[in-house]
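Progress against Task 2.4 (sequence-to-structure conversion) is shown through the following example record, which the project officer requested during the mid-term review.
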Amino acid sequence: SDLHNMTPKDILGRWDTGVAMVIGQGIKQLAVLKDRIIGAISVSQYNKWCLKQEGITENSFVAAPFIPLSRSVNSDFEDRRDRGNRPVSRWLFVGRIAPNKAQHDIIKAFSAYRVGWDSDATLTLVGSVSSLKYARCLDELIRDMGIAENVYVAGPVGDEELEHYYREATVFVCLSDHEGFGFPVIEALSHSLPVVAFASTAIPETLGTSGILLSSKDPLEIAAAVSLVESDHELRNELLEKSRQTLARYSFDVAKQENLFALQSLIPEMAAHL
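Structure tokens generated for the chain above:
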């Protein structure tokens, strides 16, 4: 068994009952398959814990995922360290437009930041729409808060355009309520981009000490954290240095070693069931 994760149905249920029903069926299927599963590989300790809640505990391994980074690790580290503050703050989040990604919380925090710190700041949201109802509510929220000129909903983009957004951003803000790992967080770190994140599910595990983790979603607290990471040169450089350790943890070689170890450990179990 290889499980990335399933978003809890209570998060999605009020937006899309059909999706919530499918998730519920998926969880039931795990219960049915439990006695037939001879082992499991998860990409995070959090995902392993989720499997444990469903009674899947035997031969359960955690192995780093293979992350196809489009550029060499920290290739622009020196550039970001030396450039100092940009005149305009550019927020970025990459992820599907879906309730569990909580783009609405990013929008609220961004609005507070514009009022208290930088009225010219911009926010870019990259990702395909998974919930049309939620996407429409985000559009309405952006209009009601009077920030439509400062928020760009880019939708799905190709590698070249995504690279552009990472390069132009000054901070990556992730306020997801549920993540089984956090691939865009690693992408942001690989671009030496400071990260401010809500400490939910697998995000603390993924980010480690390479960014600012918050236990609150208070818009002013988030805005203040962004201001701090953008204005404090010493803090930003410290986080960039720590990001090297996190990126090394998720390097291709480490992922290869951990996945091979897990598979080799499961081979005797697989052979016994043939």
